[in-house]
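Recall the central idea of this unit: under ordinary conditions, the amino acid sequence of a chain determines the structure it adopts. In this exercise we apply that idea directly, starting from the sequence alone.
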Amino acid sequence: MPYSTYRPDLMGSAVLDGPARMEAGSMQELVLTYTCGAFGIDDTGSIKIGFRFATDMGAVQFDDPSAPGYTTAEASNGAPLQLKWEFKRNIRPWSRSLYVGVSGDYLSPGDRIVIRFGDRRQGSPGIRMQTYCENAFEFRVFVDAIATYDYVALPISPTIEVVPGPPVHWHAVMPTLVRTGDPLWLAIKGEDKWRNPADLTGRRFAIRSNPPIAGLPASVEAETGARAVRIDGLSIAEPGEHTVEIEFDGHAIRANPVRAASNGECIHAWADTHGQSNETLGTNTIAEYFTFGRDLAFLDVIGHQGNDFQITDEFWSELNKTTRAFDVTGRFVCIPGYEWSANTAVGGDRNLHFLHEGEKIVRSSHAQIESMETAADDAFIADDLFARLDPERCVVAAHVGGRYADIVHAHDPVLETAVEVHSSWGTFEWIVGDAFRKGYRVGIVANSDGHKGRPGACYPGASFFGSMGGLTCYLVPELSRPAVFRAMQTRRHYATTGARIHLDIAADFPSPVAFYDRDPASGAAPAGTVNRVGMGAIAESTADKMRFSADITGTAPIERVDLYDGTERLETLRPWRLDGPSRRLRIVYEGAATRGRSRTVLWDGRISVDGNAIERAAILNNWNLDRGIREQNPAGLSWSAVTTGNYGAIDLWLERPATGHVRVDTPFCSAELDLGNWDGGDQHLDCGGLDRGLRLLALPENMHETGLRFSREIDTPVGTERRIWLRVQQEDGHRAWSSPIYVIRR
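Accordingly, the structure predicted from this sequence is:
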């Protein structure tokens, strides 16, 4: 339950010295002065300075005055003070807190405690600010004046504005699939080193396309204060794939390819339907959350998924009003919903998406809601939740976050149409495997579950989150809420780790097959007969074979494509080949420790090269600037990285191919490779845990092929079911997962 509400006006005040605006990720000294109120603070009383769960402000420490994060506290009357940094020992959302206890003395009304975060008086460089932007980064002050350990929040706590630094990363974004003649747009943004959209004031961008795009200007200039440039009113007259290049200040970037189809049955709608604002556990307000997704992440579809046990009836009403206000057909689709946040033992996290506003919220508990007026509506276990929902008005996806969804424990074949394979928490292909092993017919989605106010462009910063947030591409006839909701119901979508990869799959049959919109396990009847089905379809065939086809256009060169039937990998395809020994070696580290919150794997590794030399090295999927490649010389390097079910990699370009030895040492396992006796194929080493391991493979020194089309004839024996899907992996570390095509052979 919330903190005590007893007389906050008598508990004192707090002020913060220094500038009102600070750059994200900058080193600062933050001086907070608390002045005691009418009670003073009794012996063994204390105050706490709380910070939001999502913050990745630098670590607080009390032992080394010359090191980052050194923090001190002094009482104006000389009273002894005890300091403790508490991680997740404070009531959420103020999960991180500095405890300042008074011991052996007391403070009188008007006495002060001066707290210096990043105290520079003895050589500390300061403390690093959180790495993402926030309009009001709050130092929430709680006071236990009477030594009861019953804290009262001050009515006003100090805040500062956290702003972006200068741009160093650049992005150009376009739709991936449109119809010829339909409106089209191009967006450009720059991000600071921590991936916050940065000020572009006065920057001019030269633009060219191949083939030409109608309405595209030769150049555009950013307006004052703009953090992105968007050009509307474009169109493509003829079918085909187009690329757009942008040049500025000596830089050149390319947008994701855009494909135009004549009379196509669908367009692509890119979505992040899972994140939170500061009304629950996230950052910035709900309106700012939706604005970021629309204007700075360039989403087509967005949803908000606050934890149900924090969503008051008042906020539920506000959330519904906000989705209604932001939802504009043809421009920006907003999906009302929430996260049913039960413990894993009774079902685990589920994302609920509604067709309309005004639905009743059925919570997993009232754990952080004072009013119990609607507690009778709670559903404590997943089966009870499913029984309360109408599948014509609600779609459910199984989520892996802090609490993971246990779909083996509970699943509804009509309501629960998808599992979330990737988010900022990591990659979770095991939940897809759970679904296949249980015979479920689900689609695959990815979202951010972002807590940092950056839906659709969510990076982990310096926190324990291990991945960039994902995106889901919905295949829709139009950009509207009913169309997106229908795509959710029928599994017409695919997932990526954030890159706007074009992915299409289909199955063709020699004779008509019955297809289902809803899982026939629920008793649903066929929706009709066709000779071809696409992404997410469920088909019932009488033929011995089917022809599966895939069409992929990446945003970077394609490293590999894995074709699966359920959990069985049928084939690995690579659109490149090694014509001889390569100087390029990729060392992959991947996996998680467990399914739950303690899944993080810290890879502090060392690579040693004997009989050859490292010419250069690069790291993939390292989003935390505190980690990465450390010491490096021709004979080896060290690195630090984390995985949370996803993967990272070190690429080495050696002086000579097929020469010498490489050794990789990590806390979990070690690998050795004789380059002179190696054909360049994958070498895999199991390191325990949950798919935790090392892989070593050779790649071409330079890769170029971003597209791949292929087809395969697949047998469909009587009495079997095929679950055909694929995973795309790019050279730059991004992945995509198709939803499966399910083919039942009676």
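The longest strand covers residues 502-516.
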